[in-house]
Amino acid sequence: MQLDEGFYFGLGAFETLCVHQKKIVFLEEHLKRLRKTLLFLGIKQPLTSQELMDYVSKQDKESFVLKVAISAENKLFSIRDNPYTKEMYETGFDIKLSDNRRNAYSPFVYHKTLNYGDNIMENRLAKKEGYQEVLFLNTEGLVSECSTANIFFVKNKQIYTPKIENGLLPGILREYVLKAYSVIEKDLSLSDIEHMEEAFVTNSVLGIMPVCRIGQTKFPSIKESQKMAEKYVESISY
């Protein structure tokens, strides 16, 4: 590993991918986002789908989490087990509200870079307090995203999610939900989510995870979210 600007200043990009039965789920979508971030950072380090597939083929495990990190002088691959259990999907996440605010005017918010300190520290603090995730509002007090996931809400079977410009990463699973279901992107305040019937979060590793509570707001159901989660698992299991 070279001590470049990725190490010293977080000027690098990463992607966390789900490998299911030796198949990299949403491979091309991840590569597209990664390349967009590398272009934003001015990093010319190449990465091909074949490199990733060759790396996956050499692993002993069939299903795992693959992390790719790239900076000006480094290209690093690593694997780990998927930490999400069946019991988590049966009970749903309990989410803390962060005191930190997302700066929707920062271009770094919209890219998955190695400059990820706010997310990691807030996530660790939430887990120490017994939560599974943490939700950020932006500087205008609008719902943005979680530390490692995008967030959605359900009312009268209509799905809602914050607009990208409210300061959130355009997630791969977020895009999947937008394409697979009728979703309204809109500004959402804390008072708005108090009246929602369900909530769920998404990312490439957990897929679709029901949410049982955010702060003091407890949602009356997680049934629709569970159905969506099951349907997603079926879609990647062919």
TrEMBL record:
SUPFAM superfamilies: D-aminoacid aminotransferase-like PLP-dependent enzymes. InterPro entries: Aminotrans_IV (IPR001544), Aminotrans_IV_CS (IPR018300), Aminotransferase-like (IPR036038), BCAT-like_C (IPR043132), BCAT-like_N (IPR043131), Class-IV_PLP-Dep_Aminotrnsfr (IPR050571). Keywords: Aminotransferase, Pyridoxal phosphate, Transferase. CDD domains: PLPDE_IV. Coiled coil: none annotated. This is Aminotransferase class IV. Belongs to the class-IV pyridoxal-phosphate-dependent aminotransferase family. GO terms for molecular function: transaminase activity. The keyword Transferase applies. Its cofactor is pyridoxal 5'-phosphate. PROSITE patterns: AA_TRANSFER_CLASS_4. It comes from the Bacteria.
